[in-house]
Task: structure prediction
Amino acid sequence: MLIGVALVVTSGFWIETASAYLCSNDHEWRLPSPDGSKVAVRFHRDCGAFGDPATNVSVLQRGEIQPNRAGNAYFAVDQGGPIEHWGGPSLRMHWSGNKMLVLTHDISDITWSTESPIEDVNVVVRGQTQGDQAQKILR
Result:
């Protein structure tokens, strides 16, 4: 059993390390919280032949640089919804106070979002169909 645990930990390390070299982040857009203490960073993560264009969001402290890894708050891959000019899924984001970030995306996209607050910020993810103003809270 100890060998199995060691293999899982080692595999995770190599996947994370390979991801840093095979993938890159660009098209960054930063949105500061109302009090300026935090920043939501929306960016495109491109892993070339190893994955589809993805929209990511991280919540960071003011002045912190987004590391070369996936977002800590949200990740989406296009499945037929609106796309950005670089090919990844469209996403709108806004702050609702200093401790709540609201993300709105098309419900056809495949998404992942965190279950717990990040940097004391709650992330609310809402799905919306194209042209539909009714929103569905996903979590």
Notes: Residues 2-22 form the longest helix (21 residues). Residues 4-18, 132-139 have pLDDT under 50 and may be disordered. DSSP finds one helix and nine strands in the chain. The chain has one domain: 24-137.
